[in-house]
Input
Amino acid sequence: MDVISNLTMDERRRALLILLVMALVGLTFAAAGHGDPIAVHGALVLVLSLALAFPVMGHLYDPEPSIERFNAYYDDPSKVGVILTFVWAAFAMFVGDWVAWLMVEPTWTTGSAWSSFGRLRPVHTTGVIFGFGGNGLIATSFYVMQRTCRVRLPDQLSPWFVLIGYNLFCILAVTGYLLGITQSKEYAEPEWYADLWLVIVWVTYFVLYMRTLARREEPHIYVANWYYMAFILVVAMLHIVNNLAVPVSFLSAKSHSLFSGVQDALTEWWYGHNAVAFFLTAGFLGMMYYYLPIRAGRPIFSYRLSIISFWGITFMYMWVGSHHLHHTALPQWVQTLGMTFSLVLLVPSWGSAANALLTLNGAWHKVRDDATLRFMMIAAVFYGLTTFEGSFMAIRSVNALSHYTDWTVGHVHAGALGWVAMITFGALYASIPWLWKRERMYSPALVEVHFWLALSGTAVYVFALWNAGIIQGLMWRTYTENGNLAYTFLDSVVAMRPYYIARALGGLLYLLGALAGCLNLYLTIRFAAPATEAASRKPLRDGLDDAATQPAE
Amino acid sequence: MFTLHYRLERRAIGMTLGIIAAASIGGFVEIAPLFTIDQTVEAAPDMRVYTPLELAGRNIYMREGCYACHSQMIRTLRDEVERYGPYSLAVESKYDHPMLWGSKRTGPDIARLGGKYSDEWHVRHLLDPRDVVPVSIMPSYGWLMENDLRIDDLRDQLATQRAVGVPYTPDMIRHAADDAYAQANPDGSGVKDLTARYGEATTVRAFDGTPGRLTEMDSLVAYLQILGRLTDAASRDTLAKDLE
Output
């Protein structure tokens, strides 16, 4: 248990105190919340806290770690974060493909409540967005903030609190859905106590980021950090406002949201679309702005373009959520504002995509040879395609056709599979050898396999649902010559079957790719040749060229 | 401008404040007026609140994730009005904490489902959708018939709804559990009190076909049968516009 012995004695004592307090809170809910599903969560928190408390107790009086540690970055949390990212990817993509097959063959369940489509679907969405995406962001942000600030994390306990606390939130969320605990707000399903816990974790995360920045030895804050900061700050705003709710009682898992009807609808989609913006875009742009130039060995193409894109995205995204509510009971002036800003938003979005792709000028031979860099390149391409598609679908008359159909699902997956997951896998494949001090990934061929599975899976998935969505939308609005609706709703359900099969197959390809990644991670940690001395120091001493952290102009 | 930024990006606090300021404007301009502009939500004096049984059914609807495949928001488009009925008004979800407008129609919109099918149809459909609709891809919900409805927390549920702005009276809150039982037991003694509190039009039936036992099925079917029927503002509104 080197990880625990590397903490100072003081940090170990504080870790134990936190875990014991959590165990006590868990015990309280487990004992007092009888008859309510919150008791199950109480018991879960109790067990998990004790499971961590025992090893900490076992190493409580180990000697203080060597003073040498201050000469290196603190990467243990990033390593665990990388492993967790792969675990969540495998789990959540598996559930995703399962629910995709349930839309082909609805009887492929156990028949128990937990395995019905409606409960599994949020397990997939939360597992992928928050489990996979969130862990990827946390792991890489710890890595990136240290390198770009040229300073070690200010302490060793708070990064663990953030990482483990965040994963506890994810576990409470997905187990909650299986138990029937949900707020039903899309992409904000976890109930009040999980939401409150996330606020505590998130504040710690922000404080950690600010403390690291305050100690930095670089005069400028590198652009990747702007995005990570926007991600942390704005997600906090969104999370708090959208989850305002009154619990039924302090021993009940259930709450009722503060807002209702139209106000609730706009708040929800203000949250929903900006979860896309600040969780699934800003955070991953931060990732891209660090890993893509490093891996390509080229400085970012344009410093000015990154400034314009950053502030454009931060300002304009917050207006566009109402494009999810075209032609609904939401007042039209809000719909129009949302549509307008959605169109203008294309400018900063394409600014970022272009900045990434133009950075690769002079390094295209590396893109050809290196699947890791190719993951990042394709991610930037999909980022450009998806933001264009998004602006297009936000036009009211296009939305009249696309809304409520599988086109939206296809659009989301173009972004999630093509952009978010690809940039994450690229960043992870770049960091894993650096983190574990290996020459390279155990099997570059397996990275190549993963790349092609991911790309073909995404293409199959997205094409299937484009077809599905457009056919659905057209069938719903087609009239016969006599002026009657030409199709029943059921006709459109039957017409979806071949596309749902194709989608599930595309998802399966993507899942297989992720599993290849898991295998490669395991092989690299266990068997890959250690890096030579010089290589292992590379990310520590000069992993980032001055050219890449300093403005190019 | 770029020199200004050159200085700004050297200050973590400056960047933090800048991000918060830039990101706050959009939401504030769009969301805040929805609470203050009167025309946002239409007036519907006849609108009633959900009965405790319907509210519990709504909770089950959320628990099972029904909103992932069924919308409750008919848009102002000709084909939608012809397929589903009058377009949805903001007032119709005024007591929905949270709203369940949905974002995807894997199944049809159900904003006006209430009264369209019999209770028996709903029960059979929920137990096995393919029993009544052979090509359906909806999941089966067998456990709804097996599970007794939880009524010990209904009082707290209503009190919480009142806390967030739904006009439940203290009387309604006090008798929440009794009213839930009464609504599914047409021959029981509590029916008169229930209709006195929630109106003569309240549907009182053995929704799952078995009076005496209160199941989750009773509750969910009661909810499905009230969809679109808390107020008739929507049909009045479109009628008025047609006459103009």
Notes: Chain B touches chain A through 90 residues (CB under 8 Å). Chain B has 13 helices and no strands.
